[in-house]
Amino acid sequence: MKLDGKVAVITGAAQGIGLGCAEEFAAHGARLVLSDILADKCAQEAARIGREFGVDAISVPCDVSKEDEVAARFAEAQKRFGTVDVAVANAGIIKAGSILDLSPEDFDAVLGVNLRGVFLTGQAAARLMVDQGVKGSIINMASTNAVVAIPNQLAYVTSKGGVVQLTKAMALALAEHGIRVNGIGPGSIMTDVLKTVMNDDEARKMILSRTPLRRIGDPREIGQVAVFLASDYASYLTGQTIYPDGGRLSLNYVVPVDD
Ligand code: NAD
Predict the structure, then answer these.
(1) 133: CA distance to ligand 1 center in Å?
(2) What DSSP string runs through the chain?
(3) CATH class of 7-187+219-245
(4) Where exactly are the structural domains of the chain?
(5) Ligand 1: which atom is nearest the Cα of residue 14?
(6) Does 223 contact ligand 1 (Cβ within 6 A)?
(7) Which tens digits make up the pLDDT trace of 194-251?
């Protein structure tokens, strides 16, 4: 799979899955615009990736829930590289709460980043691609929680369900321009949040008992799916969400877990 010279904008790229996507894109020769609210960390990672993989990688700080900042990020990408071929709308947050106790402020905050942020990034990317006649690829980060739900993660699961529908509506509207839009719905992936959870024995057993491949995924394994979706190998794929979940969504039971 080749992404040689393709320009990819990735949100939430300072760490975790976004960083895993950035590393895989760099390994396949893409030029990168890494974006995050963590400006310093994002700049450090962009510099490291540029050095280690020998690709052009810049960092543009941005809050994905703010329209003017998203527009400025795409303007900077265009100024630096001339165009954008791929956008990965990955930034996401979690705030716990069920229907009985979640505050409206926390609901808005999660939807603001996870759904509005994906919409704003997709809209800015699509407008630029249409203007320039670029037959690009837009990739939205969903979750297995788009399909199954966790009661005390009401806002998160709602936002991810929205991402899957947003992906379909975007794909249909952009098909005539040759722009493909797909989603990725990861299962449990070893990022900072999950590292803490995995230190708790009960939580670890619960997660693994719902994971047929019996291990947690690596951020680079999500990056590999993103590279596929961005590449010509996915040229007839649009409107879909792919679930790299270790088998979770196929499982209607639990699997044995070692102590
Ligand atoms: P993470 O917290 O490690 O990384 C998220 C990144 O997004 C951080 O760098 C953070 O600074 C950035 N971010 C947060 N709010 C932002 C904003 N308003 N604007 C710009 N950047 C912002 O999380 P992660 O586990 O790498 O998750 C990345 C994506 O993958 C999220 O959309 C998440 O919902 C999804 N996901 C993660 C898992 C998992 O198991 N880790 C599973 C399914 C889906």
Answers:
(1) 30
(2) ---TT-EEEEESTTSHHHHHHHHHHHHTT-EEEEE-S-HHHHHHHHHHHHHHHTS-EEE----TT-HHHHHHHHHHHHHHHS--SEEEE-------B-TTT--HHHHHHHHIIIIIHHHHHHHHHHHHHHHHT---EEEEE--GGGTS--TTBHHHHHHHHHHHHHHHHHHHHHGGGT-EEEEE---SB-SHHHHHHHTSHHHHHHHHHT-TT-SPBPHHHHHHHHHHHHSGGGTT--S-EE--STTGGG-SS------
(3) alpha beta
(4) 7-187+219-245
(5) 9
(6) no
(7) 998 888 999 999 999 999 999 999 999 999 999 999 999 999 999 999 999 999 999 9
